[in-house]
Amino acid sequence: MTERSYLEQIPAAAISDTCRDAVSVIINNSGDNSIIGNLESLCPQRSYKVYYTEPGIGQLNEVLEMCSQSRIPALTICGKDCNEILDSNIPAGSFVTLISPGSGWEDNTLERLLDKGNICEFSHIAWQNYFYNPDLLDRTRAKSFEELRLGLIRKDLTLTEPPIRSSHYIFLDLNSVRVCDYPGNIRKTPNGLYADEICQVARYIGMGQNLKAVFIYGFPSESKPDSVSTELAAEILWHISEALSSNISEDPSLPGNEDSFLKKIVSMGKEGQDIVFINSSLTGRWWMQIPEVKTSDNLFIACSYTDYLTACNGEIPLRWLFFFQKFNNK
Description:
- This protein has a nine-stranded parallel β-sheet, with helices on both faces. Strands 10-11-12-13 form a four-stranded antiparallel β-sheet.
- Helices cover about 30% and strands about 20% of the residues.
- It is of the alpha/beta class.
- The chain has two domains: about 5-245, Ureohydrolase domain (Arginase, Chain A, 3-Layer(aba) Sandwich); about 260-330, no CATH class.
């Protein structure tokens, strides 16, 4: 039986419009090529192409720009940190998601993202109280940004899917995975996401509707091809690419595709606001309609099935309330 090959290694300069047959480009900017063997050993479950490249010194932004022009999601392994990315500009109006345990410990990604004034929406996923500088948490909440604590998503991992679905750029700190599942964890912390949870989150990333780039950092230098840390990093990239290969683009706000969506109206009582949910009959995704009082327009916000069940139980979903207040207090 012939094994399927999904990975093709190419020079950075070869990324152009001719690469549009690929579902993603893996850019290894860590300076360590040990992961390529792990990636090649993973089996694709359908026919698709992923390109792998290692840019030279100072070439990363150029390669990312080529991916952007070719409309190919860039999956970048940044090594210990992602400072080179943070030094460049994230386009205005972007929705950014950070998956990390918090702030500090030689990682200033959260603070630098909060300092960028051109980010439209921001969500922080899998943070832990004891790793989060209270001042930075206050800044996150003052800007009406979303934050999903590890303890909350441990009860229901699907809560991470809606913000990830809407994100353009995702920063994923491998140190958000507990040390027994990811020995390369620089914090050596016993708590964090499990290996299977980060892989499910990776699948949500690949199913995103606006994804442009993922930046994976916290990857140890001089890692070994047969190490648990390198294998997990490779599996994360595999899950993203697998999801990209089967992703379906959906937008319930577009006219003419009403047959693909089911509308479910939940009454919150005589004094309450009816909440309209939209459910895709094709993928099972959920959205909420958020009324904008001043314009009488309805905004479609990604949500989870849990939000629908919460409304059916007579409670206003926190995500609905969060966006209703945000959009109507501008």
